[in-house]
Amino acid sequence: MQNIKFNAVSKLTELSVKAPKPSRDYLPEWYKDIPAFQNGKPTFDNTGTTDRTIKMCMPFLDSLSMGYIQETWQEINISLNDTGNQQKAFAYQYPTKPDIMGVRNQGKHKFPIPSEYYQFELTWHPVWIPQLPKGYSALITHPLNRTDLPFYTLSGVIDCDTYNQSQEGSNLPFLLKNNFTGIIPIGTPMYQIIPFKRDEWQSESNEYDEDAQTHYVQKLRKHFWGGYKKNHWVKKRFN
Q: CA 197, CA 177: separation in Å to the nearest integer?
């Protein structure tokens, strides 16, 4: 078992901001509300296929549950005034310290931003920095499969075995949906932290093996549902 530590960037952080917690604590309500089957109980078609939903997909649940989540520690108000210039009209407020976000001055060389977002980058200010064992890095990314959030956090990989203390001026860029105004509440997932070991990889391709494919498919299809979970899935533990 490996150990992740989170280092506070200040005493104020230690006293007033929750450190990142396991992502499984942030399963969204819409996911919890999805039934396992479209009709609430299994319905079979003439091929033996059931009307199961994404709730039965373990890879999807694993993505929501991987690693750790940093949540917002104070409310953020987003407003937009009609001035004709989107960035000048954009305003945000939060009530207290430590600072939680800002706007990045991109200059003329900027990240290509999709049209559904405000056409400038914002930044999260991380206040808990992950510390990992030697040889490990962390993928910092938008909470996986959380298209319901009003923002999109861009991804980065940080070598947190050596880069793990107070990072003055560091930030994580994010985009905000341009139809959003109002308050982002406390406890909203900001970004997901997924540790991984820096192994060296080499890729290759295998020839098609019909016997192996047939054996694999038949092993899964012996079950109406849950074949992957029963035969292949391994529990991932983040505490």
A: 33
Enumerate the β-bridge partners of residue 68: 22, 193
Is the alpha carbon torsion for 65, 70, 75, 80 positive or negative? negative
| pLDDT tens profile 195-212 | 999 999 999 999 999 999
Residue 44 pLDDT greater than 70, yes or no: yes
DSSP sequence for the chain:
----EEEESSHHHHHHSPPPEEGGGG--HHHHHS-SBTTSS--B-TTS-B-B-GGG-HHHHHHHHSSEEEEPSS-EEEEE--SS-HHHHEEEE-SSSSP-EEE---TTS-----TTB-SS-EEE---EEEE--TTEEEEEESPTT-TTSSEEEPPEEE-TTTS-S--TT--EEEEEBTT--EEEPTT-EEEEEEEEE------------HHHHHHHHHHHHTSSS-HHHHHT-------
- pLDDT on residue 51: 87
Cα separation, 37 vs 55, in Å, equals: 8
